[in-house]
Amino acid sequence: MRQVASFAAVTVRTLHHYDKAGLLTPSARSRAGYRLYDESDLARLQQILFYRELGFSLDEITTILEDPQANALDRLRARQRQLAEEITRLQRLAEVAERAIEVQQTGVSLAPEERFEVFGEIRFDLSYATERQLKWADSAGQREAMARAAAHSKEDWRRLMAEAAAWRARLLEAHDAGEPSDGARAMDLAEEHRRHITRWFTSCPPDMHRRIADDFVADPRAFALVVPPSQQRPELAAYLGKAVHANASRTETGAARDVPEAQDSQVPQDLQHSYDSQDSQEER
C-alpha cells in the first residue's frame, strides 16, 4: 500500500478512507492482511484523483464511477462552468488587492473609485513599482517624495493629471510632426517634464533626469507610466529619451530656455522614477 500511496502522491490514510467509503476497494489482500492493488485498481485511483483535482466530492465521484447512467460529460461541463465563475471571482479579488497594494505603495490617499476618476488609463505596473520600492525603500529621496505625494489632495492630483495629458499631447504632436528630438521644441518638453517632477515630488537635476529617461527606454513598464500603451508610437520612448539628454546638456551649459511653469506636466507615477533616480545618486 505504501508503494501505491507513494506512486499516486497520496497518503496511506487517504487510501484507507477510499476503501472504507467503498470508492476504491483493493482487489486482494496478502496473507498478512495488507491491501493489494492491481492495474485496474490503479486505473480507478487515477480517475478518482482526476475528479478530486477538479473539485468533485467523493459522493459525486462514486456516482460517476458506479452508475452506468451517470453522464460524466455533463458533470464535467457543469464543473467547468463553476470553475470559470470561480476564476472570474478570484480575478476580481486580485484586482481589489492590486488597488489596495497600489494605494499603500504610492501613498496616494484616494479611494479606488477616485483613483480611477483621476488617473484614468494611467496606472502603476505593480511589478515595476515593487522592484523599485524594495530597492530604494529606506532612502531619503524616496521618503521625501512619498510624503509629498501623500500630502496631495484629490484636486492636486486632478490638476497634475490634466497637466500630464496636455504635456503628453504636445509630446505626441512634436513626435508626429517630425520635430527633431534634439530640437528646441522637444527639449522644451523635456524641460517641462523635469520641472514637473521637481515641483510636485522631488528635486530633479539634469543628471537624474537622464537616468529617468534611460529607464523609459529600457523598461516598457516605466514608459507606460508616462504614455499609456494606447497612445504610444514606435520609438517614442527613444525620442523622449534623446530629448531629455539633449535638454540636460543644454541646461548644464546654462543655455536652457525659459519654459513657462504653467506648462509643466507629467503623470503622478513619475514620482516612482524620480525617487529611484535620486536615490541612485545618493547611493553613489
TrEMBL record:
Residues 263-278 have a biased composition (Polar residues). SUPFAM superfamilies: Antibiotic binding domain of TipA-like multidrug resistance regulators, Putative DNA-binding domain. Gene3D superfamilies: 1.10.1660.10, Antibiotic binding domain of TipA-like multidrug resistance regulators (1.10.490.50). GO terms for molecular function: DNA binding; DNA-binding transcription factor activity. Transmembrane segments: none annotated. The keyword Transcription regulation applies. The keyword DNA-binding applies. InterPro entries: DNA-bd_dom_put_sf, MerR-type_HTH_dom, MerR_fam, TipA-like_antibiotic-bd, TipAS_dom. Residues 73-100 form a coiled coil. Residues 249-284 are annotated as: Disordered. Keywords: Activator, Coiled coil, DNA-binding, Transcription, Transcription regulation. PANTHER family: HTH-TYPE TRANSCRIPTIONAL ACTIVATOR MTA, REDOX-CYCLING DRUG-SENSING TRANSCRIPTIONAL ACTIVATOR SOXR. This is MerR family transcriptional regulator. It comes from Streptomyces lincolnensis.
